[in-house]
Amino acid sequence: MPSSVEFYAAYDALLARWPAGTEELDVPTPYGTARVHAHGPAQAPPLLLLHGGGATGAVWFRTARALGDGHRLLAVDLPRDAGRSVTDGRPLRTAADLMGWLDALLDSLGVDRAHVLGHSYGAWIALTYALHSPGRVDRLVLLDPTQCFAGFRPAFLLRSLPVLVRPTAARALAYLDRETTGTGTDPEWKRLFALGAEAFAGRRPVVGRRPDAARLRAPLLVLLAGRSSAHRAADVAARARRAVPHARIETLPDLTHFAMPTALPAEAEHRIAEFLGLAGSPDGARRKS
Question: What is the mean pLDDT of the chain?
Fold first, then answer.
């Protein structure tokens, strides 16, 4: 049976692949201490990275290399999930609590406004936060967002159930291998995810309602996985376009849901960098699908 020692060894091994100069910050909040991996020039525009469920903040090592020259990346281990954040303060039970945690995190980091990039569950948090604190979010990037514009496919939930109800590292790794076939998803990250599924079997991430995306005013880029089993990419694209007409929406045909972000093609990383570099410029209804 894998132990937390094995999980943290795998976690540190993945962190070793971040670029030189990455800092490990333990950031105090009223809800506990958040672990943040910080990379990039201290005075560069901040970019908050919110990972998918069970992925940990360490998953963004490729993103750090791609975007770290022009941004101050702040990749946090989400609370009540696998990783090194500790929630031993004020209770974190509701979406409102989670938004308060994010406000406190940015306050402690000295960040007034930031770009926000989230994947999967992290995308739900990112969109919810952009609506909760619109004055603090410059630009928003969502990678195969779940529970933002559409629900999960029932078949996806059915396949995921054994990993959620009776998690073992072997079961989680077999699940990920099936869900990422042919995508080049990083094997060290898959092992970390699998170890975390067992080591943090009792975790209960905070969840809430689907956000009202029609209220979003921040510039938005949505990158969807064309082979996602979590939902049908075309349906999500159509619903996102109706809710947020100014959004740029693109589908990456060869990716699956769990292939993000470690298997993002270089052109997608360039697209993100280009979009974030447009801060303050009107890009109106520029979009693709």
Answer: 94
Backbone angles phi, psi at 207, to 5 degrees: -125, 170
Q: Which amino acid is at 130?
A: A
Q: 131-141 pLDDT, tens per residue?
A: 999 999 999 99
Q: Which of 172, 160, 161 lies closest to 198, judged by CA?
A: 172
The Cα–Cα gap between 124 and 120 comes to 7
Of residues 223, 211, 208, the one with CA closest to residue 253: 223
Residues in contact with 176: Cβ distance below 8 Å, sequence separation at least 6, in sequence order = 185, 190, 193, 194, 258
Q: What is the pTM of this model?
A: 0.95
Are 212 and 131 in contact by the 8 Å Cβ rule? The answer is yes
Q: pLDDT tens-digit profile of 68-124?
A: 999 999 999 999 999 999 999 999 999 999 999 999 999 999 999 999 999 999 999
Strand partners, 39: 73
Task: Round to whole Å and give the CA distance between 81 and 99.
Answer: 16
Tokens coding 179:
């869900």
Query: Could you give the strand order of the β-sheet that contains 32-39, starting from the edge strand earlier in sequence?
Result: 23-29, 32-39, 72-76, 46-50, 114-119, 137-143, 220-225, 248-252
What is the C-alpha to C-alpha distance for residues 156 and 228, in angstroms, rounded to an integer?
Answer: 10
3-class secondary-structure state, position 228? coil
Q: At what angle do helices 169-179 and 187-199 cross, to 10 degrees?
A: 140
Q: Encode pLDDT of 252-281 as tens digits.
A: 999 999 999 999 999 999 999 999 996 444
Q: Could you read off the pLDDT of 202-251 as tens digits, one per residue?
A: 888 999 999 999 999 999 999 999 999 999 999 999 999 999 999 999 99
